[in-house]
Design a protein that fits this description.
The chain is an alpha+beta fold. The protein has one domain (8-61): Factor Xa Inhibitor, CATH 4.10.410.60. The protein is built from three helices and three strands. It has a three-stranded antiparallel beta sheet with strand order 1-2-3. A hairpin with a 5-residue loop joins strand 1 (14-16) and strand 2 (22-24). The protein starts with 7 loop residues before the first helix and ends with a helix.
């Protein structure tokens, strides 16, 4: 049985945690920052956990 290839686009955007969940960066954090509050921008800096509905799809894209 051959190895499954990792989707490189997913590997660049996602990280797997110790418990097997996936983390990624927040959306809406890049520009037009003046209209966002400081609290909102600070929260966007932290990594977001991928939703439970998408965990299975991420695991298929990144098998190792």
């Amino acid at each position: 049985m051959p190895k499954i290839k990792t989707r490189r686009a997913a590997a660049k955007r996602l990280r797997r945690t110790g418990s097997g969940k996936f983390r990624s960066h927040h959306a809406f954090a890049r520009h037009i920052a003046t209209s966002k509050s400081t609290k909102r921008k600070r929260g966007l800096r932290k990594a977001a956990t991928i939703d439970k509905a998408d965990q299975k799809r991420c695991a298929k894209m990144m098998p190792y």
